[in-house]
Queue: 2 jobs
Job 1
Amino acid sequence: MTTNSNSNCEALRDDMVALLYDDGEHAERSRARDHLARCVPCRADYADLKAVRKELGGWTLPAATLPVPPRARVRWFPAGLAAAAGLVLGVGLSMAGRNALTPSSPVASNQSFTPSASTGASTPRLVSYDELQELLQTQESRHQAELADLRQSLVLQASASTARPENSLKSVSTVSPNVIERLLKESEARQASLVETRLAGLKSQTDLQRQYDMAQIAAGLAYIDSRTGADAARTSELMKNLVRVTAKPQDR
Amino acid sequence: MLDNSQMSDEQLVEAFQAGHLAAYDELVSRWQSRIRGAVWRVLGSTEDAADITQEAFLRAFRGLKAFKREAKFSSWIYQIALNLCRDSLRRKKGKNYVSLDEPEPRIPLLLSKGPSPLELSEGNQLAERVRSAIQKLSEDQREVIVLKEYEGLTFVEIAETLGLPTSTVKTRLYRGLVELKQHLARDGVTGASPIPDSNAS
């Protein structure tokens, strides 16, 4: 730290503290600002003090001395936490569902798959895991049907080209129906595997999130029960006993 | 008629002095955790903090009937608690005590998803260094630093609590911060510049 021996600087230290804490009179802070604008060593001192204050912020209270929440707030805490956990879970599911069905995904390339599309609502709504699974199965069966149609039309085209060889080069090129069928099967398998992977991932994510949230809720409740609740109850009981013992007979 | 929780400290004191003893319950629940936090920071021991906080509120209860409402209740209860801290430190002076308190889990460990174990470890190390640096301050400096930095009292409130002029409060704060800077630099806390060599000219 810079040692500033100038007597004017020393006289302004209180003002500097006032500026540092944004407390005291306006005139003090104003004097400090003017001085700091002119005095390089004091500016360095001031920066040092600010840095110290920042470090002091790193000393947090241990759990046992944390402020006790007011009683009214304690009452809603478990319900609020559970609601928050539910909201997080819901948002997580919704996000996971949306990720699994982005337009770039093969599953959703042709049709909108969001629950809002099925309900006709303009805003997306949260869906449960079972609901999502059901929707995915519907989508899968629709795709299967589309693939079957496509396969049938290709077979028809191939047979037509066999009948009219002059058009075959233009319509189906040199690719044989067997190759097309193989490609379709591969694509089908790829899509099925993608859907399975997404579902498995979603399930494991949901389970993990639920476990994590439950652990947090349990830890929070245990903490409140063991620390603040017990402390508050003990002190309150003590005070009540004290009040009872020291009260005049007419107050009792 | 106002509910106790809606009343100001001054109104609660007035109610207590008028014979409504339950008003004291509200004052206790309103201030006990802050007082305990301040005491813990001044003493550095959780167990002592709980005992002293309890004792402070017992004394306040006994004295509240005669409390003159010129001062704020908060300043008064801080004053009682800090006097008890001084007594406690005086009794312990010259004796080496080792706290039997278990290392307390800090709240980030319980609720936060954010910091990694490394960050938590670094955070705890920083907290320990700050705690240690504050314990090295004189009692006078430690009190003003705790009341200002951690309790957020104004200069006037600190002056009222400690019975000092505000200029003295500011001077103690300045000197306390300068000393802390040196202690933290010695402990190698990031951002602190090294202590100037006292032998150097």
Job 2
Amino acid sequence: MPFIQDPGLVDEAKKAGWLTRLYRRRGLSGPVAAVLLLGFLLTPLLPGKFPTIVATEILIVGLFALSFNLIYGYMGQISFGHGAFFGLGAYATALLLRYFQMSAGEVSYFGFFLAILAALPVSAFGSLIVGFFCIRLTGIYFAMLSLAFGELLFYIVFSWYSFTKGDDGIQGLMPPPFFQNSTHYYYFTLAIVVMAALLLWRITESPFGYTLRMLRDNRNRAAFLGINARRVMLMNFVTAGIFAGLAGALWGPFQRSVSPALLGWAESGKAVFMTLIGGAYFLVGPMAGSIIYTGLNAYVTRYTVFWPLTIGLIILLIVLFVPGGLLSVIDQRISRRGTERESRERIPPEAAPGPENEA
Amino acid sequence: MPDFGSLLIQLFSGLSRAMMLFLLSSGLSLIFGVMNILNFAHATLWLVAAYLTYTFFQILSNFLANEALVLVAAIVLATGIMFFLGLAIERFLVRRMYPRELPEQLLLTFALILIFSDLIKLFWGVENRRIVLPIEPLEVLGSFVNPYFFVIIAAGCGIALGLWWFLHRTRYGKIVRAAVFSRDMVSALGIRIPVIYAGVFGLGVGLAALTAGIFLPIMPLSLGIDMDLIVQCFSVVVIGGFGSILGTFIASLIVGIVYSFSILFWPDGALAIIFIILVAVLILRPWGLFGTEMRF
Amino acid sequence: MSGKILEVAGLNKHFRGLHAVRDLNFVLQGGDKTAIIGPNGAGKTTFFNLVTGFHRADSGRIIFNGTDITNRPSHEIARLGISRAFQISNIFPKLSVLENVRSAVQAQMGKAFDAFGRADRIGTGETERIINLCGLHSKPRVAAGELSQGDKKKLELALALAGKPKLLLLDEPTAGMSLEETRETMALVDRLNEELNLTTLFTEHDMAVVFNHARKVILLHRGEIIVEGTPDQVRMDETAQRIYLGMHHR
């Protein structure tokens, strides 16, 4: 009884354009990702350096938000300390770059790539330690413990002046000459973020990805189906930490400096907001949220210093009325229009319409 | 090694801080116990109340000479306003979040932190504020101690007793406690749950406001102290255990005194020490000293 | 057939003063179809919770197929071959029916940690088989949270079956079902018992179901086994009658 192939759908797909086909097969994230990619590729064509620089920031923080969503949207836990891994990655790269700069005067290309790669094991290790404790809890307790650990790591970086230069941060980071050009660095960042996103997509559509969703929807039942919830959570937590560290690694050379604030709850909060704005149940939701958040921030801070008030009100409205984020609104509109079109095109069946006969 | 005098001062400081934590955390615990909502913005609302009390104090000082009277009047006014603000927040915002999932509830109260702390900045600016009561320092055991500490401790105990009396001896209080155990039973008895929820939230916020007013004379106000405080309140509620007044009390003593003494040795890291304790408790005994054991 | 599949010895569980399960002893043979009956609060669900690792036993032992599973974590017990269908549908509401069953199948296949395979290509055959078996073939893409109650129970059973269990625990499997649905569901359970030698243990309040589908009946009351035997033996037993008469009077 083949139900996976619905003949009606197959015929329709042949008629529809490639964008619609992408939607049918990959959900909303497919076409949205395609559109975003196109936009990102063409951004440097806009006049001036500003669009490119803003877009670089959008990409980096967007990747950070994507990593956060592994824990939130896919696994159902909220971590207020995820910024710590972003910051750890940033500091790992920054410290290595500074070392190369001080010993050799400038950073070689090999050194540069090495510095970026170094962020991965550092953030992996950090998230392994923190995760080991956090996964023993869920819900509010998980949120609080992750916040507490994040702040603890912040304090360590803040206080360990001899190693991290504390509140002064690490300044004067210079990537190799080719990457000092903002457009070059932008495309480099884009390449890395696209690869990371593809990897994330692969992970979330794997059996492991659905195991995460099972934990999100019904943790107890997942255990009764033979799933070791803690081990899954830890694996996911560390994976998310590594991707956050990768984003952090890109941040230092971009901003030419790092500071302890990158590890704090304010930074963690950014990831949460972006995910909420864009939509937690879509792969590219956090990236869409990053565009909106960063754009909004750049715009609002030009006119007022009361950015927290603004974003607070926006978050409030979204949580109250559109908790699924922007992409969920788009998704609903599309499926509603699709259902309408299908019911218009189909000849009504003889049986009376009921819940089982809905398209 | 600091001398006995400054140790004594730290002890008083710790005790009064413990008292403040106890009063604030009780409100937090009460709201959580009845409505299962963790009000992240509790300390921020406390700070709003403090600034409000400050302004009323400034205004009323022009009309009355007796500072004590001015303070009391200011506290009453501010607490009243905050109580109604609490009712409004519950009625229009928090109420919509009951059927929702935890992360969204946390985000709502988190957004409130952003909104209210920026509103403070909007109305009161960034300079520190303080009120000064003309009180002669008292000499105790070779050191000078602000006698207002005793007022605080007395007032704090009074409020705590009042809260206990309300919860255990009045009809309304018993209804609130019943609602913690079973909201279904309470509504089956014909009592309107929404009214209870609104009242409890208002009570919690009002309690925070009262606390803010009482502590105003010894506490300089500045932006950002709410974040320090909410973390300490969390720590108290976690260490003591949700739903246990005794636990809250003891945990307040622990956190208050540890924090005050940590300031002596490691000013920047006093909060970090609290974090470490919080982390340790969450790892070893997440339900706290007196909470009910839970499975995760 | 096979030997003892489940052995319970001296099992005890207290909840803050309530002695929910008292000194429970019994044996289940492989291939048995057994019903546990008893008034509400008798300890049936607590017993299931103890067997599946959701509660820690205060004392006693539970041995499954020769392995001591007392106080082992739930996921280990599930992997050893005990599955459970819950009374109140315990499904994954945001996932589709297809994704629900497929993920359970993949977990059973040991693929829960596979982060690079394609979820929509692994275990599809087995998923299709189970969905068809449980009568959900007409709505694979519906979100589980939006199913009707009856369909949720079908999904519930499908999830339990996806674990390829050797022992299936069913918590009031026909609660809230129509006559037709009850007949279908229990016919399926019987078929599984016969064709796969799947040992079934279910709790029930519906006596017709018990007498038509159980070869052995255990009467539980206040945490203790009062009577054990074939349905007829239990029906004739005086103590059992007294308990149920007492129930009706109340």
